[in-house]
Design brief:
Blueprint: E1 3-8, H1 28-41, E2 45-51, E3 91-95, H2 117-123, E4 128-134, H3 136-149, E5 153-162, H4 170-180, E6 184-186
Parallel strand pairs: 1-2, 1-4, 2-3, 4-5, 5-6
The protein binds zinc ion.
The site of zinc ion has 8 residues, from loops.
């Protein structure tokens, strides 16, 4: 069984002080650092996705979307949290880079060379993906659901995610939808 850890969008704008701060978003950092160390030690791969928006995307409120400006390409808000220690060799994939794209799912993300997450996982023979990061009710959920659609075993790392919770129950509903789609939930 080949495993991959997918670290979803642990970026400054999603952490306290950011423009779209997820409550306790930075609480996932240390937990994911530990997972990343363990995965690399076990010979598994680690990939990190990031929201990577242009300034004029329809994803943002001013252009008809639902979100305040966040994670604009090459700005400090789009950088990974400074305490996130991604192991050497971690592949970074960007999503939401097209003005028409929301880019919720890590499976929409590509490396700078244009390689998709699915291509990376298939090339490495990965069967099981473990997903943590931000936010439970959007990008984590979309990534887990797409992992299931593409035939992967998917494990939500519940101690390594936090939700936006526009409605207070959004994260619990998102987890229920992931479980319904066949994902497993790990509490570490
Ligand atoms: Zn976004």
């Amino acid at each position: 069984v080949a495993k991959a850890l997918i670290v979803v969008d642990v970026q400054n704008d999603f952490c306290p002080g950011g423009t779209l701060a997820v409550p306790e978003g930075d609480a996932v950092v240390d937990v994911l650092n530990a997972y990343a160390r363990d995965f690399v030690a076990a010979g598994a791969i680690v990939v990190a996705t990031r929201d990577w928006h242009p300034t004029d995307t329809r994803h943002f409120q001013q252009f008809g979307g639902i979100w305040p400006v966040h994670c604009v390409q090459d700005t400090p808000g789009a950088a990974f949290h400074p305490n996130l220690t991604l192991p050497e060799g971690t592949l970074v994939l960007s999503k939401g880079a097209h003005p028409e794209a929301d880019g919720y799912s890590g499976f929409e993300a590509r490396t700078a060379e244009g390689v998709s997450l699915l291509e990376i996982l298939q090339k490495r023979g990965v069967s099981d993906v473990y997903v943590g990061g931000l936010a439970t009710d959007y990008c984590v959920k979309a990534t887990v659901l797409d992992a299931r659609k593409n035939g992967f075993r998917a494990v939500l790392l519940r101690n390594a995610v936090r939700g936006v919770n526009l409605q207070p129950w959004d994260s619990e509903q998102a987890i229920a939808a992931m479980v319904q789609a066949g994902a497993d939930v790990s509490d570490g």
